[in-house]
Structures are given as structure tokens and as C-alpha cells.
Description:
The chain is mainly β and about 475 residues long. It has three helices and 24 strands. The chain has a 19-stranded antiparallel β-sheet. The chain has a three-stranded antiparallel β-sheet with strand order 3-23-22. A two-stranded antiparallel ribbon has the order 18-19. The mean pLDDT is about 95.
Amino acid sequence: VSQIGENNKLTIGLSNLWSKWRSSGEIPERAPKDGYMEGRWGTVDSFQSGLTSRTNANIKLITDLDKNLHWQNEAYYSHYTVDLITNFTFNYYFPTSGDEFGQHENRHLFGYHSTLSKTTYFRNTSFNTDASLGFRTDIINPLELEHTKRGLNLETLQYGKAQVTNGYGFIDENIRSGNWLVNIGLRYDYFNFYYHNLATDSFASKLFSGLKPTVLAGILSPKINVVYTFNPTFQTYLKMGKGFHSNDVRVVIAQQGREILPAAYSTDLGFNWKPVPKLYLNAAFWYLFLESEFTYGSDLIDQPGGPVSPTGKTVRYGIDFSGRYQINDWLYTGLNINYAHPRCVDAAKGQDYIPLAPTFTSTGELNFKFNNCWNGGISYRYLHDRAGNEDYSLTGKGYFVTDFAFNYTKKKYEIGISIENLLNVKWDESEIEYTSQLKNERAPVNQMSYIPGVPFFPKLRIAVFF
């Protein structure tokens, strides 16, 4: 960070990440029970692994044009690579050679945005206006999916290059008058999707044959938020808005622009309350409607069958509650409880569950911080059982996991110990439905597959602050 004159502040950031791993992958529940692997910590395909790197650079300039007028400009660039070997279904698609797949991606992404912020006053009312324009471009070459065995390429299933450019602009207005705060915003996004298929003699070459390689789409997203502060201890709010989400560029081209920017409509009604000075409470009722739900396995183009139809319209509603309490000068606690009712709109009752959508979650913590630099605490996270598939004939199992931390923190350094899964409970990091066929099985089985969660795991941490 550098101050340039009296009115300009320049910030430059550089970072790099590199990671390599070997994983067990998703394991069918029957695999350890039927002897295909030794216990839940084994693996069916030991060649599942990954390698990724990311290099980032950004530069931001904030200029004070006037006392109440500020201009922010930021440009950024990132180079990302990933090589991934996975095997979810084993001998289902390819009974002889196996269903191991290799994915490779080399991505350059860059963008720029410029925002003007101005504050004006009229009597007892203030108007804070943000107006912004920007873009982001992702260039991916190659974007590749291979059928592999022991990490070696047997057949190229997908191979191409892609480019996605998102240009956008928005205006955001905050109006404060007395006890009222009104926030109104409008954003427009325009997308240019491009995918050039370079694969030959594969299902992908047939999938994209005769299709236009470019799809254009735009969407308008408004919002309005109203906050009313009754007094210094109680505040209520109503928030409403429209957003969207997008899919893999290959699916966009395969669908020729159909349902590629489905809208999301949401609303929140809630309050913030401090009934006593050291207690803070928040509760909100919320509702979310999606024009099209993108779910893992139903929309990703990561299997030989290619893209399939989106899940369709979905609705969720629920209530969130959180509380914070300062017990004394050195001890404080927090609690979050979240309930949701997620369903597919167009499906028949009993067939309308959204796979793996959470229904009840909770987190909590009890922390301490002494004046002599000692600090730490204990925390938990809870996830209730939820539907593993559309008719709830399969279950995604929940868990209750506790973590602990104890640190000695100074201005220039920190030394600490943390323990993940303090009580050493059996839990799964992730679960998902797959139809898979293990070696020597006569028929495929539709079942939940899992990645085991971390067992009791103490770690020593040493950090240096610059």
C-alpha cells in the first residue's frame, strides 16, 4: 500500500498457491463392507490425485476527487492450472478398462472494474451513490477430459478451448433519513460464451457437431432493501432481490443458450436486537426461488454421457437464528441455527427432494482471550441427515464435529495448537449418489459414495506476521 500525494492510495497484491495431493476419492458405502478395500480409510483406485497452481496479481487505485466523491479503479490477473485424476463409478461405463478419468485445465483470467462513489445531502437525508462498470474474461486452453488407466491416457473424451467474457454495470443507492435506510440497486450482466471443440472421433465431437460455438446472453438484476431502526437496541429489515447463476461453458453451448442464466429470486425479513448490552440476537425468515437448479451430476459435463437436463425449478424457505454473548471481559460465546425446507417445484410429491440440500445446520463456539496473549476456544459444527436423491430412498448422513484451538499471540508471531475432531467421531466430509460397479460385481449399484472426514488430528501452528 502506498500513498501517492494527498488524494491517491495505491495497493498492489501478488500471491501464489501450489498444491499436490493423492486422495481416496468417493468411496461406495459397500466397498469396505464387501472387502474391496481395507476399512473406510482405504481406496478402490489408488491413482486418484491432483495438482493445481494459481498465481494472482492485482492493482487498485483509490482517488479522492472531492470530499464526497471517490473513484476506485482495480485491475487483476490470475493464471490457474489443474490436473485431476478421479474415479467415481469404477467399472460402470467401461467394464474392462475402468472408469478412471483425467481432467486438465489451463486458465488465464483477467478483469477490470471502475466505481464512482458520491455522497450528497439534502436537509436530514443523505444519498450515497455507487456507479460501476467492469468486465472479466476467462480464457481456457486446453479444457480436456480423458479416459485414463493408472493415470495414462486411453482415449480423449473432450478436448477444446473456451472463452467466457462477462461485462457488467450497476448503480447502487443508499438513502438514510432519520430511522430509515433504503438501499436500491440495479445491475446488468452480459455474457459471451465461446467453446471450440477440438476432439475427434469421440462422443464430444458428435455432441457439438453442427452447433454454433458462440452464445450471447444478458440478464437484469434489481434489488431493494429497507432497514428501520426503532432505537439503539432494535432494528428490523426487509430485503428483496433478483440474481442468477451460470453453468459450464460446454453445457451452455450444448444447450445452445437454453436456461443458461436462470434467475434467482429471494427475500429476507428479519431483525437485529440487543436486549441487554452484552447480548446480540438476529433472526430472519427467508425465501428463495430458482428458475433452474444446477446440481452436481445432473448438469456437469464430466462423464461420458455428457450434459443432461437441469433439475428444474426449485424453492427453499426457512429461518436463520444467531446469537452472540459476552460472558465477561475474556470469555464470549456464539450460536447459529439454520432451518431450511428445499423442494423441486415441478416434481411429484415424494419425488421432489433436492439431493444433498441441507435442512438443519448449526454451529457454535466458546472462546477466550486473556490480556496476557493467551487465546483459543472450542467450537462445533452440525449437519442433519438430508435426502441423498430425489425420492429420499438414499440418505446423506449428518454429523456433529468438535474442534479445539489454543494459541499464544504476539504482534509479530503466533504459536498455537489446534485439534480437529476433538472427540474422534466418525463422519463424512462429503457424500453423493453414484451408480457404480466394482470389479467382479455382476450388476451396477445405485448407492451413496463418501469421502471420510478427518479423524482426531492435532496440529502445531507457527505464524509470522509482517
